[in-house]
Write a structure and sequence with these properties.
Mean pLDDT: 88
Strand content: under 5%
Number of strands: 0
Number of helices: 15
Number of domains: 1
Order of helices and strands: HHHHHHHHHHHHHHH
Low-confidence stretches: none
Shape: globular
Radius of gyration: 21 Å
Oligomer: single chain
């Protein structure tokens, strides 16, 4: 672990300790001990179909590259990638590991797999943004007036990014030959650029386009991909609903829907390893900003949901490492090799 990671981990841990002290350890302990094990079990059980559906969607996106990707491989590789991201967030190590492992198991091509993962992430942002907007639409008119500006700004910025990115991807796929021809002309105009490097860059560009073709492979696939995206993020909302239910905290459904989507967007921001501290801060700040007042229960829901989700992801990721015939050393080597 490098100095930057150690420093961010220390700061995140200090932040979490301060929040626990501010709320009072006794109040937090009582809130956690008063939670319902049954509802928490439902929360954990919901994670399995959540990740299975993610794996199925990724498999659909890879159809233009390889039509016979095994769902089991897609699932375990997805869990391994999320495990890496849970340990080392924002460094995108898990995405590189997923692409590398998928290529190793299914011979899909590293850049094609990485491109499909990028498309998957754009679809995630689309689903999160639209469900967040639905949450706003379902709020009473008087409540919308008191929404913090940052909640609307976040959804607006991400929505614009998604619209531009999806439009660019679709245009690139539709006009692939023209785009590659343009790239070739630009490269040939660069003085002293070796021909072999020109070909490498062109092949790289083609690989990225091939990996994105799952988005527009056929109308049926496109519809299934979009539908699965919304179901995936509806499950994320439902998991947040179950957490609040476990703590017997009566929160309006639109607030949970909007808040859970804003929490998902917070993962874009810098964070220490394991999101320690920042997960709890963003979760608490978002729900307090949306009008909730019980900081002890809000922080308790944040801590418990964080622990349970990380336990599931790391546990299933570890099983995936073993079932795929890998080792943790090899997985981390995949990350560092592809990032450098």
């Amino acid at each position: 672990m490098n100095f930057k990671a150690i420093t961010s981990l220390f700061l995140g841990s200090t932040l979490l300790i301060f929040m626990i002290w501010y709320v009072d350890v006794g109040n937090l302990y009582n809130a956690i001990m008063g939670s319902s094990p049954i509802w928490l079990a439902y929360y954990l059980l919901l994670m399995l179909p959540f990740f299975l559906l993610r794996a199925w969607r990724w498999r659909m996106l890879l159809v233009p590259v390889k039509s016979s990707v095994k769902l089991s491989n897609s699932f375990w590789i997805t869990m391994i990638g999320f495990m890496v991201n849970a340990i080392i967030p924002l460094r995108l190590g898990g995405e590189f590991v997923r692409a590398f492992a998928m290529d190793g198991k299914e011979k899909t091509g590293f850049f094609q797999s990485l491109s499909s993962v990028a498309v998957e992430r754009v679809l995630d942002l689309l689903g999160i943004t639209l469900l967040g907007l639905i949450g706003i639409f379902l709020l009473p008119k008087e409540a919308i007036m008191y929404l913090p500006d940052w909640s609307l700004d976040a959804l607006r910025i991400v929505g614009i990014f998604v619209a531009i990115t999806l439009s660019g991807l679709m245009l690139g796929i539709r006009y692939e030959k023209r785009l590659l021809s343009l790239v070739r002309r630009i490269l040939s105009a660069i003085p002293k650029l070796p021909y072999k490097w020109q070909e490498k860059i062109i092949n790289f560009s083609k690989s990225l386009i091939d990996g994105a073709k799952g988005l527009t492979h056929n109308p049926s696939t496109f519809f299934s991909t979009l539908t699965s995206t919304f179901v995936i993020w509806f499950m994320a909302f439902l998991s947040t609903f179950l957490i609040f239910k476990a703590f017997n905290y009566d929160v309006p459904t639109p607030i949970i829907l909007l808040g859970s989507m804003l929490v998902q967007l917070s993962f874009i921001l810098p964070a220490p390893p394991g999101n320690i501290g920042t997960y709890e801060v963003f979760w608490s700040a978002i729900f307090i900003g949306l009008g909730l007042s019980r900081l002890d229960l809000i922080l308790a829901t944040a801590i418990v949901s964080h622990l349970l989700s990380d336990a599931f992801i790391i546990g299933m990721g570890s099983i995936g490492v073993t079932s795929m015939g890998l080792s943790f050393k090899k997985v981390m080597k995949m990350k560092s090799t592809q990032q450098h």
